[in-house]
């Protein structure tokens, strides 16, 4: 492991589904426990993983394509739409 100031480096094996295991010493130093959320970002050919705040789950920014897919999947059947319209018109 190379160490200069606060920089440490390790070779990590990529497992199934793209999983990697962070060295235990790093997890301990950063306070990362099983089930914690970490922030990952891609910069060129680098992947940077940052420890998250305990108990804080950050929001996710969805792509336009993902949002369009959600909307496409979130359609009500026409029969149900008519029932809802009838219920709403009765409450006026």
TrEMBL record:
The keyword Hydrolase does not apply. SUPFAM superfamilies: AbrB/MazE/MraZ-like. It comes from the Bacteria. GO terms for molecular function: DNA binding. The keyword DNA-binding applies. Residues 9-54 form the SpoVT-AbrB domain. Keywords: DNA-binding. It holds the Pfam family MazE_antitoxin. This is SpoVT-AbrB domain-containing protein.
């Amino acid at each position: 492991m190379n160490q200069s100031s606060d920089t440490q480096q390790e070779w990590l094996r990529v497992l199934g589904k793209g999983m990697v295991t962070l060295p235990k010493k790093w997890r301990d130093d950063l306070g990362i426990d099983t089930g914690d959320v970490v922030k990952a970002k891609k910069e060129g050919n680098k992947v940077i993983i940052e420890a998250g705040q305990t108990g804080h789950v950050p929001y996710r920014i969805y792509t336009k394509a993902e949002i369009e897919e959600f909307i496409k999947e979130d359609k009500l059947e026409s029969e149900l739409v008519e029932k809802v319209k009838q219920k709403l018109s009765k409450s006026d």
